[in-house]
Amino acid sequence: MMTHVRLHVHEFGPGAGRTVVALHGVTGLARVFQRLADRMPEFRIVAPDLRGHGASGKEPPWDLSVHLRDLRETLDAMGISRAPFIGYNFGGRLAVELLAADRSRFEKLILLDPALQMEASAVTASTEALLADPSYGSVDEAIAARAATAPYAPPEHFEVWARDLVAGPDGRLRLPFSRAAAIAILGELTTPPPPFAALRIPTLLILGDESTMVNSGQTERYTYELGDFLEVKTVRARHQVIGDAADEVAAAVRAFLAS
What we know:
- By secondary structure, the chain is an alpha/beta fold.
- It has a domain at 9-117 and 192-258: Rossmann fold (3-Layer(aba) Sandwich).
- Helix content is 38%, strand content 17%.
- It contains ten helices and nine strands.
- The chain is globular and about 50 Å long.
């Protein structure tokens, strides 16, 4: 029997602002969009914790079709029938899948260093890291580990990130996500996404110049398939483009949504 999980939703910005739906990545949380929202004060950013993450339910199954059903149910319950979408990491793949299934929901698409399709070797490495049960002995240890993955982010970025850490029965700190759910999502990311040639809507692709999530061959393919519908911007960042380059990302998103 399928368990439906209406997602827990974070809202940033004014309630009367233009609504933008933002989807986070695997092992991440919706709070990642707080720094972006702080720089886009005219927008209402609606960011759900995806199944298996944060305050949303963590019950299986965790495949793409279930994430899409969760997302549709949540947006419908909120009365959001059409909006621009932002997708970071797995959120980018989820947004593309929703666009392929229900184009009418989208005004524009913004992809932040998206995990549209990952190499099997990268998924294996990420899965093995999760199986090792990443945890921290203190907040300072957690922040130091996180800072190594986003070298250009300011200290306050990690202080906000650390607020979501929770202590387990062993006293160690972890982010509130299901490792089983995250591993299932990673497996889904080895499969090819829908072809962009059939999804031609205005799309902004923001990449970290030190990230390997989207390789040059993928960028060339997306550029060929989307043509004039695609705008590509590179920022000084690793994969965590919001952490490393919040000002540049927010400025690019605001300009894109205004055009």
